[in-house]
Write a structure and sequence with these properties.
Length: about 90
């Protein structure tokens, strides 16, 4: 199991009232499941998938600055001291 830091950005930081949480897991999915088990009641339903076990597609999940959609998504393996970032996709000008 890798020890990783889940950094909470924008709306996640406001809803959870923390800047980061440390977790252990083998994959990105392991960490996200732990986070949602602890915090899904604090998040808006629009942020979650229908079964509430994952985030909806508008949520940006980065692993060391790389979008997990271009890696192996939730099955992406983790290493000690990896940094995950959770953000809601924002747009505007």
């Amino acid at each position: 199991m890798a020890k990783v830091k889940l950094n909470l950005l924008n709306i996640f930081q406001l809803k959870i009232d923390k800047r980061y949480i440390e977790y252990e897991g083998k994959t990105v999915g392991d960490v996200i499941i732990q986070f949602l088990n602890e915090n899904s009641d604090k998040l808006d339903d629009e942020m979650l998938s229908k079964n509430k076990k994952k985030f909806n597609s508008q949520i940006l999940i980065l692993l060391n600055g790389r979008n997990i959609k271009y890696l192996k998504n939730y099955k992406t393996n983790l290493k000690d001291n990896d940094n995950l970032y959770l953000s809601f996709a924002l747009a505007g000008g």
